[in-house]
TrEMBL record, chain A:
<dbReference type="InterPro" id="IPR012336">
    <property type="entry name" value="Thioredoxin-like_fold"/>
</dbReference>
<dbReference type="InterPro" id="IPR013766">
    <property type="entry name" value="Thioredoxin_domain"/>
</dbReference>
<dbReference type="InterPro" id="IPR036249">
    <property type="entry name" value="Thioredoxin-like_sf"/>
</dbReference>
<keyword id="KW-1015">Disulfide bond</keyword>
<feature type="domain" description="Thioredoxin">
    <location>
        <begin position="23"/>
        <end position="213"/>
    </location>
</feature>
<keyword id="KW-0560">Oxidoreductase</keyword>
<dbReference type="Pfam" id="PF13462">
    <property type="entry name" value="Thioredoxin_4"/>
</dbReference>
<protein>
    <submittedName>
        <fullName>Thioredoxin domain-containing protein</fullName>
    </submittedName>
</protein>
<keyword id="KW-0676">Redox-active center</keyword>
UniProtKB/TrEMBL annotation, chain B:
<feature type="transmembrane region" description="Helical">
    <location>
        <begin position="69"/>
        <end position="92"/>
    </location>
</feature>
<feature type="transmembrane region" description="Helical">
    <location>
        <begin position="112"/>
        <end position="135"/>
    </location>
</feature>
<comment type="similarity">
    <text>Belongs to the DsbB family. BdbC subfamily.</text>
</comment>
<keyword id="KW-0676">Redox-active center</keyword>
<keyword id="KW-0249">Electron transport</keyword>
<keyword id="KW-1133">Transmembrane helix</keyword>
<keyword id="KW-0143">Chaperone</keyword>
<protein>
    <submittedName>
        <fullName>Disulfide bond formation protein B</fullName>
    </submittedName>
</protein>
<dbReference type="InterPro" id="IPR023380">
    <property type="entry name" value="DsbB-like_sf"/>
</dbReference>
Length: 215, 142
């Protein structure tokens, strides 16, 4: 037997096994995440979840976001652009998935700012200055304060509110929902309850476009 | 006797099969299943991946000196794999665990048939490769 052919055949076989295993694993896991969503519909949006945009909008994007996640900060303006391009048709529901170290405290800042009606401006300011307060992918809440200047916040009240038991409960609930919905990385999007087929802005755009064209 | 018909060729070929399967397996765990890759796993990859390339270089044409080039990689990789396995088994105490931040190496992410973990697979793969290389060395030098 010719060694070259044996080698080439074995190499091809290994690669084919790898490709087939990859494809079957991916299709199986996307089935699983779709099932996880249909089993846990009530976990997608909670009474406490902050929303942006028209309450009657026909497209609802649920975003699981970590304020310390770099990709989240890159996606956020794109989502806002999509909403601006379709005014009144898209609603954004914000869910917290503070997976980075130290990120929970930053979510507490967001929720405390929400009590002063400043959730969205604070979120935008924090995402824009993320690299300054989350060096090495570790959120440091002590570094957050300079970036909140000029937003008209009562910082003393905000610091006191951060430890409110309601806020702690919101974060716990969102993390539990994320787990039940198979959300393991951020940002994760659900468009009218449907998870993205694959991660990427173009897939989000496709789902949203389809939902906009639908009834 | 043709080059690729010697027992040495077949042994190196078998070692390559193990290295290539391990390489693809590690990539599958990391890139497809997105399992977290801990520090020790990275070091084992550093010594396994090159074997998948160096061993075929000794097959065409067959050159038994490939054992000398591949064996150091396999031995170091094996040492790390054994260390990792002892860590997972709890033989090595808490204090000298090298990775407490990020992904702990002592965390078990996969357990097949109740005993087969990723570090154990790594120990088995490196051991097999070392055994095949040593046998090649003695068989071909005769």
């Amino acid at each position: 037997m010719n060694g070259k052919w044996v080698f080439a055949g074995a190499a091809a076989l290994l690669l084919i096994v790898f490709a087939v295993a990859t494809m079957s694993y991916k299709s199986e896991s996307s089935d699983q995440s779709a099932q996880a969503v249909s089993r846990n519909k009530e976990r997608l949006v909670r009474m406490h979840s902050p929303t942006l945009g028209n309450a009657q909008a026909k497209v609802e994007i649920v975003e699981f976001l970590d304020p310390a996640c770099e990709t989240c900060s890159r996606f956020y303006p794109l989502v806002k652009q999509m909403m601006a391009a379709n005014p009144n048709d898209i609603r954004l529901v914000l869910r917290y998935a503070p997976f980075h170290n130290g990120s929970e405290a930053v979510v507490a800042v967001l929720e405390a700012a929400r009590r002063q009606g400043k959730l969205w401006p604070v979120l935008e300011a924090l995402l824009a200055s993320q690299s300054a307060w989350a060096p090495q992918h570790t959120a440091q809440v002590n570094l957050v304060w300079p970036h909140l200047e000029g937003l008209g916040l009562d910082l003393e009240r905000l610091r006191a509110d951060m430890n409110a038991p309601e806020i702690v409960r919101i974060i716990e609930q969102d993390l539990a929902d994320a787990q039940a919905l198979n959300v393991t990385k951020t940002p994760e999007f659900f468009v009218n309850g449907q998870p993205l087929p694959r991660f990427g802005f173009e897939y989000l755009q496709q789902l949203v476009d389809r939902a906009l064209q639908g009834t | 006797m043709r080059n690729d018909a010697t027992p040495g060729w077949t042994l190196i070929f078998a070692a390559w099969l193990v290295a290539a399967a391990s390489t693809l397996g590690a990539l599958f765990f990391g890139e497809v299943m997105h399992l977290p890759t801990c520090v020790l796993c990275w070091y084992q990859r550093i010594f396994m991946f090159p074997l998948a390339l160096i061993l075929p270089a000794g097959l065409f044409p067959f050159d038994r000196r490939v054992v000398r080039y591949a064996l150091p990689l396999a031995v170091v990789g094996w040492t790390i794999a054994v260390f990792h396995q002892l860590l997972v088994a709890g033989v090595i105490p808490e204090e000298i665990r090298p990775c407490t931040q990020g992904v702990p190496c002592s965390q078990t992410v996969i357990e097949w048939f109740g005993f087969l973990t990723i570090p154990l697979l790594s120990v088995i793969a490196f051991s097999t490769i070392i055994a095949l290389l040593i046998v090649t060395h003695f068989r071909s030098s005769k």
